[in-house]
Amino acid sequence: MCAALTASLDQTVSVLVDPGTAPMAVVALGGYGRSELSPYSDVDLMLLYESGDVSAAAADLFRPLWDAKLRVGHSVRTVKEASEAARERFDTQTTLLTSRLVAGSEDLFERLMSAVTRVTRARPLRRHLVDAERSRRAEAPYRLMAVDVKTGRGGLRALQAFEWERRRQELIGKFSTEHHADEATAREVLLRVRNALHAVTGRAHDVFSPELRDPVARWLGRDTFAVAQDLVTAMQSIDRVAEQKWPEVLDARKEPAIRRVWSRSAVSSGSIRPEPPSTVDDLDRLLEAGEPGRALFDRLWDDGHLADVLPEWGVVATLPQLEPFHQHPVAAHLWRTVAEMQSIGSDQGSLGRIGRELDNPRLLRLSAFLHDIGKGHGGDHARIGAGIAASFALRTGLDAGTTDLLVGAVKHHLLLPRTATRRDLADPAVIDEMASEVGSLEMLQVLYLLTVADSRATGPSMWNDWKATLLDTLFMRCAARFGDEESAAMTGGATREEVLARSGEATESVSAHIDAMPADYLRSLTIDEVFWHLELILDLAGASNLGVRVATPIERVAVVGPSVPGFRRLVGAVFAASGVDVLEARMFGRSDGLVVDTFSVRDDRTGGVVPRERWDRVRADLEASLRGELDTDDRVASRAAAYPSSEVSRPKPSADVSIDPATGDLVVVVKCSDRIGRLAEILGVLENLGLEIRLAKLDSRAGEVIDTFHVGTGPATAVRDFTELGRRIADQVTP
To answer: Of 50, 403, 556, 700, which one's alpha carbon is 20 to 30 angstroms from that of 645?
Structure first.
């Protein structure tokens, strides 16, 4: 395609040039000069002339191209002016290095190249090219799935830099290095994907963003996974070529951990010849060394030195991750997880304290590096990865204690985040089950730190203050089961005796309130929240009452109102229309017909605290909605139109229904695309099916939601055909 577009434009430009005018040359620059035009590329042209007035010729050349809606980067220069511009600006110099004569005077073009050669001889490129590569890596320390195939790390710009350096060598008469074997393949992959991106978007879009992956693959007539894997492989190849051409990009010579690993390595003036590591400690020092360690690990792998130590690496080395919430391919994610684990070691808070208590940084680095090693094999990657970790430990001679912890960490690395975001952490049975599965405080600590590192390394939608709060709560309550005194003092929950002891003269009303609530009411609240609820009930004047508390880091809201059909869907709709994002909801019905619900919330645009003045409007809208004076559905639709969601692929809604083995709750997990008003919609579906929700936990991941709803024991748990119930729920949730 690039060749066809270039040839077509060459023919057009040639027609537009009048050969009878004074000596002129039309020179293609940039991507056009390299014959790398994509459908919506800029067209960079220079009209080179010797002397005289060429304004008419310039108009004849450029105006038809502008009229054709092409984005033309144009210049009109003499050889001297072009030479001076190259001397003043690095980007002009590199552009001219790969310029190409399209039409006009060959002699004039040769004079231009002679001038460029003089400038180039006096102005080396290497420092600029290395700085540019460092900038790309600073912007993306780890390779991205949503790569900018033109200017991003591992993209076309790096390939162009290799070509600029070779071209300079040719012009000044020095030996020019040959193309690396992987360059041509990488260039073809990148240009192919870039052409497809332009074609499916109808504009100059160069980012392989999640919502475009399937359309790009369809346009190319290929499988999405195969296209993504080719792209990951190309990016990795370009990174490695850059590190071989410009070792100073890594500055490995300053890395003491690298020097300790390869005492026989020649690390000097552009030559790095690593020897294979002889122990697991050597491999661990690579992990400790960060980016230089990663680069040398890749060199070792390419040279076959790691085939006996970690043969399974070949599966994940170029494995893409297509879920929108994953920022990185698998290999880059693993290296970033190691880096996140390293940063935990210097944390001055509880994370660092736990790491210091474990006093086994090698175990933590290895668990971070191997936690996803089971991906790409098909099946449960955590279980498969645990087997690989066990084999790795045997091959490298890890001691039994470290091996048990490493294998357990890989096997259970999803246990804490799934429990924290989907189960009822206030239920002692859940905590007991967790403690039993984890087995020890040491294993719990490893899993906790691994979960933090893994979540941070996955992407911004996988780690925020709310998820940190959930994970902290789960960790402390589990740690208390293992006798950790500090955690036991912070596990929360209230007892009837504690509440009544603080009730003073209101003992009778407090006791009546507790008696009117479900049996699980107290265990999920603090004593202060019990009195807060009672205050809202006593102050109830209209159809509902709403109270707000700003906690750190998550805001809490309580709503008291009538237990009427659709009440909770209406509350969810009012929140959505007002820009209030619900993270968790605990829902209780009093025996006297009142609903007492507590929500953990945040502003759905900023992720921070909802402005105080907005709550007055929420309160008024809730009252008006209950009286039938406000159409909340219209308000939600209007706001959804004003703030369109970034739906990636509009996955078909699904609902999984099961029984929580610890609590006996009916649990409904709904997966669908994310958008404003989703919670209200799903609550309405569940209420219509007669399911009384007591706990809702909402998890949003880069355009997708995984919302979990717990139904208390009662008639609903008598459901036997879970598949049919899940189908009915999914069918009523809009795509």
So the answer is: 556
Does residue 596 fall inside a structural domain? no
**Res. 134 pLDDT band, cuts 50 70 90:** very high
How confident is the model at residue 271, as a pLDDT?
43
Quick one: DSSP state of residue 141? S
Contact present, 149 and 213 (Cβ < 8 Å)? no
Instruction: Say yes or no: 326 and 294 in one domain.
Output: no
CA–CA distance, 41 with 303 (Å, rounded to integer)? 39
Do 263 and 282 have their domain in common? yes
Residue 505 in any domain: the answer is: no
As a whole number of angstroms, the distance between CA 435 and CA 480 comes to: 9
Taking CA 700 as the corner, what is the angle to CA 699 and CA 705, rounded to the nearest 5 degrees? 85
- Cα dist from 290 to 135, 175, 389, whole Å: 17, 34, 21
Is 117 a domain residue?
A: yes
Contact of 166 with 183, CB cutoff 8 Å: no
Q: How many helical (H) and strand (E) elements, i.e. helices and strands, does the chain have? A: 33, 14
E-state strands within 87-153: 100-104
Instruction: Give the CB-side neighbour count of residue 687, counting CA atoms within 13 A.
Output: 17
Do 320 and 455 reside in the same domain of the chain?
Answer: yes
Query: Crossing angle of helices 441-458/350-358, nearest 10°?
Result: 130
Write out pLDDT tens, residues 219-275: 999 999 999 999 999 999 999 999 989 988 986 544 555 554 444 343 333 444 555
For 181-193, what is the HEC assignment?
HHHHHHHHHHHHH
The pairing of beta strand 704-711 with beta strand 666-673: antiparallel
Name the maximum alpha-carbon separation found in the chain: 106
What pLDDT sits at residue 541? Answer: 82
Q: Indicate if 335 and 439 belong to the same structural domain.
A: yes
